[in-house]
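The freezer alarm interrupted the setup, so I double-checked each line after restarting. Inputs confirmed:
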Amino acid sequence: MTYLTKPLDSSYIKKNFSCGISLLDDYLHKQAKQDMKRKLTVCFVLADENHEIKGYYTLSNYTIPLDEIPENLKTKMPKSYTNLPVTLLGRLATDERFKGLGYGKLLLLDALKRSYDVSCKSIGSMAIVADPIDTAAISFYTKYGFIQLPESGKMFVAMKTIEQLFSSK
Ligand SMILES: CC(C)(COP(=O)(O)OP(=O)(O)OC[C@H]1O[C@@H](n2cnc3c(N)ncnc32)[C@H](O)[C@@H]1OP(=O)(O)O)[C@@H](O)C(=O)NCCC(=O)NCCS
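Predicted 3D structure, all chains:
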């Protein structure tokens, strides 16, 4: 599988990136590389031929309490797991110059595919959990089948659902 994104490295131009939300801009400009060095996350970027960044997302390992997941899935999980392994899609953003062109969707699909592939071959993960920054982000993730978790406000899609998406192609 070829992915559309590459891990962020110093060959990419970060300084012009602006998605309209300063927290997400500052993260890419100032913190993403540090977090990667510390192995806290991997930041994947979608860039043009000049290495100008059009969008990015981050993935990390994460856990959520068994009690937080939707009831229909909870009953299928062994009771001995008080926390469940998931993949955290911590951030996702498209540069304002490229909004409305389908890059947000491409970034999300790329993140889902990477996470699904890892869950099949290397590290168990029963869901992807996203951390929406505001109500617009909630509506974006809802469009793609994520549901809101009651306690944390994070959003959830089961890896089994992702599996259906990729196995039907
Ligand atoms: C949300 C965001 C990533 C969307 O990026 P984009 O490149 O403009 O989105 P796309 O062009 O790929 O849109 C794909 C689809 O999602 C829809 N969409 C885009 N933003 C949406 C939103 N906030 N709510 C609902 N649907 C949305 C589009 O209308 C499009 O629908 P269609 O395929 O039926 O026409 C972008 O607006 C962004 O970076 N926002 C700021 C950061 C942010 O909120 N990140 C989200 C997670 S923290």
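Quick read of the result. The mean pLDDT is 95.
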